[in-house]
Amino acid sequence: MKIKGLLFLIISNLALAQSFEVFYPNTENIYLADVPKRDKDYKMKFQFNNYENKFYVMNRLLFDNKTAKSLLYIKFLNIYAVSNRRQVDFYGFNELFPKKGFYKTGITKNFLGEKAEEYDLDNDTSPIKLWFADGIQTENEMYSYLKSLNVLEKIPKNKKLVGVSLQDIDFDNSTAGKQKKSFVKSSLENFVWSSGSSEYRKCMKNFEENRKLDLESLSIPKEKNFTYEISEKYKGKEVNGEQFEFSDDTRSTFIRLVNDKKTNENKAYYYDYSNNSVLIGNLKDDTFFYSEAYKINDDCKGSEYKKIEENDDHVLILKYPKTGKYELVVYEIQKKNAPKFLYDELKTTGFLKSIKSLNSELDEYSFNAEFKKSNTKIIFEKK
């Protein structure tokens, strides 16, 4: 896993009645902990991790074992995950935070000399409460971290964070001192895995071994008209380029043109979802020369889909792993002023405008597409 080791700093808050410390590396990670009197090992209660301003984890701990829910925010995909022991569930912001994150409870108290209002988080992933008083917010590690999580939307601009409550302990880090510590442990291990279940791997192996189709068994057109042209750009780790498509009105059939960078050969793929088949060949002068065919979709069902946002303009759909390999994908389907393409797996119609994905190596990939009307006739011939 590509998580760099970090140097931790310990901050001791001498203003509190109880012994209480905050740990954070590079002022980006914060840990709240009870400090035992006769034990050099710190019994972690709660931690806040920021990995390269890309992954944010709020993680409750007890004696170094994860015993309760942990929250992950993935900035690139703008999605959240909640881990409860070995169960991981994925969410969009509105589903996870129906009250938009921290909200005012109506409780007030004198917090270290200032009249403060209590704000609570609107789900059970965190026992932490925030205390805000009148004033201007200054630079603060805790405030900046929570703002990056998008959970401070309902905090008025004329309020400042004066403290945090963790169960029965009040904490204010403005008077903290610093001391070095060199312990680090990844919090992403709860959320990220590589291979799928043994059943899924067995299913996929069987699919790959039996994927090739007999050309004689397929209904292949002699010619076909395509009414849309689609240009696509994609980028990611060692993958940057463009591809082009011809599509019918519903995208039940389309031709994708791809340049194979290894061989510098232009390849063409004809997708026919009614036959669950893809023909592979080359396109020359409006003639598709095909030589072999394969199944498109497997039946292994390693992933599931859920709608995480929808408005008049677009819908966002998240693909997340259940039994399959780890991959998170967010699809943006344009609804307004768009073709009525049907995406069966996504259970929606429109135009697939963009894709963002993340794999188990934490590599980021993105895809953007544009369309225009056309009238292109393609002739099909076997090589």
Question: Helix and strand layout, with pairings?
Answer:
Elements: E1 8-12, E2 20-25, E3 30-34, E4 43-51, E5 55-60, E6 70-74, E7 79-84, E8 87-91, H1 93-96, E9 102-111, E10 114-121, E11 128-134, H2 141-148, E12 159-166, E13 169-171, E14 177-181, H3 198-209, E15 212-213, E16 223-236, E17 239-247, E18 253-260, E19 265-272, E20 277-284, E21 287-295, E22 303-310, E23 314-321, E24 327-334, E25 341-343, E26 348-359, E27 364-382
Parallel strand pairs: 21-27
Antiparallel strand pairs: 1-2, 1-14, 2-3, 3-4, 4-5, 5-6, 6-7, 7-8, 9-10, 10-11, 11-12, 12-13, 15-21, 16-17, 16-27, 17-18, 18-19, 19-20, 20-21, 22-23, 23-24, 24-26, 25-26, 26-27
Q: If you had to describe this structure to a student in words, what would you say it looks like?
A:
The structure is a single chain. The protein has 383 residues and is mainly beta. It contains 3 helices and 27 strands. The chain starts with 7 loop residues before the first strand and ends with a strand. The N terminus is likely disordered.
